[in-house]
Amino acid sequence: MRTLLFIIQKEFLQIFRNKGMLPIIFVVPIVQLLILVNAATFEMKNITVSVVDLDLSTSSRKLISKYEGSPFYQVVQTTFSYEKALDLMQKGKVDVIIRIPNGFERHLVKENQGKVQFVINAINQSVAGLSSAYCSSILIDFNRELMQDWLSPAQMAGLKNIRTDYSYWYNPKLNYKTYMVPGILVLLVTIIGLLLSGMNIVREKEIGTIEQINVTPIRKIQFIAGKLTPFWIIAMFELAFGLTVGKLFFDIPLVGNLWLIFLSGGVYLFVILSFGLLVSTITNTQQQAMLVSFFFMVVFILMSGLFTSIESMPGWAQQIDRLNPLMYFIKIMRMVLLKGSTFADISPHFYSLVVYAIVTVSLAVRRYRKVA
Amino acid sequence: MKRFLGFVVKEFYHIFRDYRTLLILFLLPAIQLLLFGYVITNEIKDARIAILDQSKDEITRRISEKVLSSGYFILDKNLSASSEIEQVFRKGNVQLVLVFAPDFAKNLDKTGNARVQIIGDASDPNTANILVNYIQGILSNYLVSLNAEKIPMQITPEVRMMYNGQMKGVYMFVPGLMAMLLMLISALMTSLSITREKELGTMELLLVSPLKPFQIIIGKVFPYVFLAFIDACIIIIIGNTVFGVPVVGSVALLLFESFLYICMALSLGILISTITSSQQIAMMLSLVALMLPTILLSGFIFPVENMPVVLQWFCKIMPPKYFITIIKSIMLKGNGFSYIVYETAIMTGFTAFFILLSIKKFKVRLA
User: Fold this and answer.
1) Residue B158, strand partner residues
2) Chain A residue numbers touching B132 (CB-CB < 8 A)
3) Do A303 and B285 touch (CB under 8 A)?
4) I need a surface site. Which of B49, B202, B204, B311 has the fewest CB within 10 A?
């Protein structure tokens, strides 16, 4: 036990002596939380539009005024030339071109059919999907108005109607930040934890100080535990700090039981930190360790469901994703913080993390060799 | 010159001997691109829903069928009481609940008015919003088919997706991944390789050698230009052959701009290494300060225009943003040089700025 305390003390001394690292560990993540949460948003506003109205009729003008009046759109160009509008899109200044063909109103009156063309920049497919949905929804409203203008009340009453009420639970205002804060917080804690632990042993190898430890009577498990504990404490502190910032600045609901968060967070950090130590024991230079951790980190992050939904990944990818610790913890965080899920609700994810932790810790201990 | 060449050769030895790093460097872009190309999608399909049908008649059954056969939804379970809604949401395996009011068909027939309620789990607001829209679309289509003869004129949209007709997610990942990996290799690897010499003490040896400081730096950086360039080509080739991401514009221009970006990232790496003393700090600084902003503040995933104005200003000082704009412009839109003069100029400016700053900060003495 005393040996363990000594190595923990040594690690803490090393961390706090390093004046360059302290701000990176404590200040940068919080600043990033504040900045990045604001950046990660799909809330569409300012969709830039170019209008090509070749009909110039009452109906077409009325339709266009709908788009001009909507807070989501910003009409930056009105022209008769489709080529000019396309050119602006080439330059990246316009997201959507609305093109109303000549004879729009005539067709509408004669054949009960009008066509409007939306040309959308689809390089970012998710943004394009949203823009297209917004464009169509304005059109649907417009259609309804047309119907009311043209039908007599008696005719209207003859129509069958399904009234849809919709409600958004847990986040009625659809505030995207509430959703992102828990996720990004997990991300930051993970990055700091993985990098700190991943660089640690390999650094001692590179500098040569590992030899000095290897000749001491310290046991493998003590060594790993001594390396893990300081980082675990730092990362837990950061999790708590990040939650406080989230509450203060972003007004995160914190519906569920916070102890549940810290319990799963503690287990999760065991996974991440021992994963880092594992990387550290199998690599020879910090450069290698960094590359390996970076590789796993990017894969873990992008498959974690933080930015994209897991359900829409192909089946085999979802199976692989069961090896992704981030996925579990992000789910737990969101479920508990935003929906107030109980232990019974999160237990499948929680136990997966526990199993994961046991496996990675024992692997790290096994892989660490006291031979250089 | 001979001395310099000798030094460059030494650097290449360093890199080629460490075959693990080399392997990772070349596998990294390939694996990630394949993974993201096949796996990551923003498209929402197979969302799990629960249905609470209090009416259980012909019409609610038909609507349910329409919803479930649309390809967007999978039925997770049929609920029997509204108290169960909260339960399934909390367990987290249902994203949306569809509630049919009692006597649905009867009401629809008699009063022409029936009620349905859609409840989305908006702890994921984006998905909830999209799913609710999907359901509404399905319902209104159904309504139109019910009232087929009685509805007068309709305006239908005709949507054309430019540059990415099949709406593939890879189109976004290829430019983003290029910006990210080139930044990683160029900025991170160089800063690490220079600070490594400092940490191990071999920098001292180099500094007392007849090589001039700038020769040392250039020599250090040179091999990484190569590696980064090869990686850029790997990404473009895989993107093109496996996923069919086109290179509409000029390949030469694309390579030239990549080269410029690599130079920019390298000079950033040099700057980082001149102001840090240990690999750990250099790495944390580049990873923490560069990686997340490269993913999030560059327009890679989230469009810059949607961010708060202050952040948009912040994005303007993110070099990857300009590179991503340039690649998209050349690869996908097929633009010529005249469209990207502004971005190119800014990247050149960044490069000059970083180089000047590192010359100013460079110390010949270590302690």
Assistant:
1) A117
2) 166, 168
3) no
4) B202
